[in-house]
Structures are given as C-alpha cells and as structure tokens.
Prior knowledge:
The protein has 400 residues and is of the alpha/beta class. It has two domains: 2-101, Methylthiotransferase, N-terminal domain (Rossmann fold, 3-Layer(aba) Sandwich), CATH 3.40.50; 146-397, pyruvate-formate lyase- activating enzyme (Alpha-Beta Horseshoe). It is built from 16 helices and 13 strands. It has helices spanning 2-12, 36-49, 62-65, 67-73, 87-90, 117-126, 128-145, 151-157, 178-182, 190-202, 226-234, 249-263, 280-285, 292-305, 324-337, 364-380, and strands spanning 26-31, 55-60, 77-80, 161-164, 166-167, 186-187, 207-211, 241-244, 268-272, 310-317, 341-346, 384-388, 393-397. Strands 4-7-8-9-10-11-13-12 form an eight-stranded mixed β-sheet. The chain has a three-stranded parallel β-sheet with strand order 1-2-3. It is globular, with a radius of gyration of 22 Å. The chain starts with a helix and ends with a strand. It binds iron/sulfur cluster. Iron/sulfur cluster binds at residues 169, 171-173, 176, 178-179, 213-214, 248. Iron/sulfur cluster (SF4) binds at residues 169, 171-173, 176, 178-179, 213-214, 248.
Amino acid sequence: MDTKKIYNYLSKNNSTLVNKPDEADIIIFVTCAAVNQVSDSSLDQIKKFQRYDAELIVAGCLPEVEKESLSKIFNGKTISTKNLDEIDILFPENKIKFKNIEDVNLLYDNINLNFPESIFKKTLEEVRIINKSYLFLKTHILRNLFDERSFVYLAYTKNQFHIRVSWGCKGNCSYCTIKKSTGPMHSKPLNQCIDELKKGLRNGYTHFVITAEDIGSYGLDNNSSLPELLDKMTEIERNYKLYIRGLNPRWLIKYHGKLKPILERGKIIALEIPFQSGSCRILRLMHRYSDVEKLKETVKEIKKSFPEISLITHIIVGFPTETKNELNQTLFLLKGAGFNSGQIFPYSKKTGTDAALIKPQFSKKEILQSMKYTRCILVNNKYKVIYIAKINSFLFDKGI
Ligand code: SF4
C-alpha cells in the first residue's frame, strides 16, 4: 500500500513511471524485511539496482530493520516506513505534499509490472477474448485448488478494495522487528474508514479487505474500538463482504462477546487470527497471548456459530527451544480449533530482538526439517499446501 501511495505521490507531481530500471533517473525501492529470506533478497536487489545510472532511494522496512547490513552495501538516501512523509524532503520541488495524498485502496492498477510481465499483461488487456479466457482459467484452477473463501482464492481472483484502518502495533512480540519500522500505533479516524468503504461500494466493489498490523488495537488512540469500527462497517444495507486481517488472539478474547452480534450480520466472511504457536511455553517466550485452551475454545465457538466464516492463521516453526511435542501442540490447535487456512513461516532470528538471545537457536537445516514435518502433517490432515519459494513459506488450505 505504501508503494502504491508513493507511486500516486510521484505521478500527481508529474513524474513518469518507466518500465525498465535503465530508463529511470531515480529508482525508489520499497523494501520488506519481515523475514530473513525477504531481507536477504532485498539486499541482493539493492546491489543490482546500484549498477544502473539512476539515483537509488531505499524505502520501506529494511533501512530500520537491517541498518547494519544495509550500511555495508549502500550509503545513499533512505526513507523508513514510519517516516514516509519525509519523502517531501527528497523531492522539494513537488507541490503536492505526501500527507495530502489519499490512502490507497487498490493495490495493483496502473503499477507497471516488471518487463516482460508488463508486455504480457498489456497484450492480454488489449486482446479482450484472451484476457477473459486467462481470467476464467486462473479462477478455475484456483477454485479447484482452494476454497472460494480461502485467502489465496480471494487474493488472486476477486478485485478487492483495501481499507487500512491503523498503523503500528500495541504488541511486543519477542521476535518482531516490524514495530521498529512502523513506529507508534495510530488509527485512521472512524468516519474516514467508513467513507472509504462507501467509496468502494459506490465504485461497485463487493469484497473489502480491512487491514492493519494489529487491527485489535484500532481506536485505542481516538476513543473508538474495533467492535465500534466493525459495527459501523457492517450496518450498511448493501451486498458486500469483509475480510478482517491481523486480529491478534488477545483482542479476539477481549472483544469476542461484542463481535458476535456483528458476525451475525453475515458480512464478515474471513477472519485472520495469527496464533503463531499452540504451546503456552513458546507463546510466553514470544510475549504473546498464551492461554491456548481459551483461544481454542473461543475459535471453536466462532466456528460452531458461524460455520461459513473462513478462519485463517499464521504459524512460526522453529522458534528457539521449541520441542517436537510443542510443534505438535501447534498442529493440534490448528486442527482442534478448526482453522481453514493459513501460512507457515520459518522462525527468523533478528538481531536486537529478545528472541535472538534465547539459547539454543536452531540451525537453518533443523528449521527446514521442522517445516517439512509440518508440511507432511498438514497434507495428512487434508490441507492443500503450496510452497512460496520467495519467502520460504507454506500456504495451506482445506476449505470451509
Ligand atoms: S503483533 Fe507482534 S509480530 Fe505483529 S507487528 Fe505487533 S509486535 Fe510485531
């Protein structure tokens, strides 16, 4: 969303987006550093971009999260996620300031894809019949692989309207560096969130992704709350669906009672509840909500009352000192609570975090073995699993 917002800022100030890096005067590389594999590939890409004549600006999370590694290979300009407004300092001639650019709702339109992907897409768009067939085929393949309410299916087949409701997080997970780069938690005003939803409806969108790093903390800084936000977002008399991302377990437990009447309206079709581990000991080490039994009972109750809601989660495998028995507890929780789909990440050791100080840490090989074991158990439990090599992660899904 930040990449698209930067794109909109530059376009509105009359910059031209070019197709290839060797045509550019300036390259702005918006990085991610959530897991090591992605940080490493961002660092590699920075080395490649420096070979062009263009000036390189590194934006996103990497400048904060991987300060030391970045300084070894790059000493140019950076903009971190929490200080995106400072982009105006780098472009003093721009009349429209970054803070006056609307937040982004649509992620992909108008952004040029990499060459030759852009040419391929352009050709498809030009030849309508091929384009239609391509979309039909893609939808058909995904429908056969994944349930229509899975996040994979929704992400790749529905034209989704995103609403970012807050920035930052009130959590303090021992392995996390995201907080470092996103800065203090702050919410978008409630009426602005509702206005964006209405704008999407006016423009014919029916699928909305309501997103934030820590959506449960919405409103803590502006006298509102997640239940109030979702209440207002589901009371409009139209046919539309919401997918709620980033609902950490502690907020689910806190707001469960208030969310029930909202879920009864049938507008929320998917809830992403990242539980990360099914072991109380590991969750305490992660500094996360650790009453596994209570979480399991709450999620089961939601599933029982609202069987049509897709429950999505995230799991970390190979957290320091995690035993096989504790990994099994995670997989039992996944199955026992009735999660439909999710994503498995290998633990990434990040310098400066509390988790990096826990001993012993697993080797890459040991974590890979745990990932393979997890994959086998998921397949045995009838989940469809696909491997995303770019981030060394598994997506899994077993439908509703
Ligand atoms: S919930 Fe935990 S992992 Fe997620 S952003 Fe907050 S501190 Fe980081």
